[in-house]
Records
---
Amino acid sequence: MKQLFYTLSLVFLLGSLAAQPVTKVLFIGIDGVRSDALRQANTPNMDSLAAGGTFTFSSWHLRTTMSGPSWSAMLTGVWEEKHGVTNNNYSNPNWTEYPYFVTRAKEFRPDIKAVQITSWDPMSSQVTNDGWDQKVVLGEDNDCVAAGVSLLANDTALDVLFVHIDDVDATGHANGFNPLYATYINAIEYADVQVGQLMTALKSRPNFNNESWVVMLTTDHGGLGNGHGGVTREEREIWWIGWSNLGALPKQELIVDLGSLDPLDYIFPNANDFDEAPLLVDICVTAIDHLLPNVDPDTVTRWDLDGKSWLNKTTGINNITVNVTGGNIFPNPTNGTFTLSMQHVKHDISYRLFDLDGRAITSGSVPFTADKVDVQLDLRKEPAGVYLLEVTHNGISMVNRVVKN
Ligand SMILES: [Zn+2]
């Protein structure tokens, strides 16, 4: 009987191990999308990912806003002082010490299958030690997206896919990076259609519900006039969206109050001063963190990463992540009253409820006493519509949309 018990225990143990979903990453990089233009464009696919995940319209690029240095920072998780790429020729890179995130992840998961697809050849031909099993270079964005769709739908072994979409940047160079220009907005809206195609393919995977996907979308820089490479807000303030199918990323908008610090006051800001803010280099670290559930990227000191992970960790792995655990709002939509519920609370919480015109409806604070906080809120006297609930915890604010019927 004892023997049987041990055998059964082992079977259960193996069963529970086998049930851990494999972690995977889809990274869609859309070149040259200004944050303010993305807000204005009609992008239902990206909106849907943002509404179901973590996003920010205020992430920062702190170095050279050209494509080569920018993609290199994003994919290595370090700024150009380390990866060495300061122009689009990729001269003097240091891929040996600062490789792409795939190479890092393969130190612990050597069997990862990773593919990059781009129409911009330098990102393929000028980069080594990048960890990709396949580097696909095709002529146009539509070809790249079609190849991505095919891989996502059919390749069950695929673990990491990076699809680069380039035409928004090309449109900006040709006609202007400007949210007032229809050409620029149309290009962003077309990229959103392509995002929708990739997401449809991802969700069609035969084993999708048993795979733990993090989907990340971001841009490498904005633009001003017909170019980029400078230090203006239009070039430097970027955005990103992270979405997961099995809860790796909470629902929240990241708005970090930097106080008197403003990256626009500096040509090359001291990156350490902006640790709290969403940054270009966070993308890589978030990807590693998801691909390696048992490895905290911060503790692998030889990697010397500049970015941080935005995953919803509850084990205190990263210095910020734990503090931004999103509030849950229910019911939402509401007929009047609703509850804001927060977990993993470690500090006092304050909240403010606004309408879309910015009119304050109510505000309050909850002193820290327990790691779970429920706040009852009331919109019964307000008209039907959309409201914004800003919640601040440890200096980091999240804005949640609340719909009153
Ligand atoms: Zn670019």
Note: Confidence is low (pLDDT under 50) at residues 1-17, 313-326.
---
Amino acid sequence: MEINQCGYHVKCDFNGCNNIAKYAFSTKGLIKRDLCFCEECLKEMYELLAKMQTPRALKSPFKLNKKLRRKND
Ligand SMILES: [Zn+2]
């Protein structure tokens, strides 16, 4: 499995997302075709994965937002 820059001008595969896909997730045949997604969805996926990896971060999203806001201040 690997993530490459998406070479085609296609829309992001995520439901409700109308961005143009920037990356393609290739499984070399494990799924029918590459999953194409935009940078925003990549970040979202990354955050979700990070939460799964570190159970302690599984607090309410509100707290997470507060943390992010503080960082921006
Ligand atoms: Zn997207």
Note: The pocket of zinc ion is lined by residues 12, 14, 17, 19, 37-38, 40-41 (CB under 6 Å).
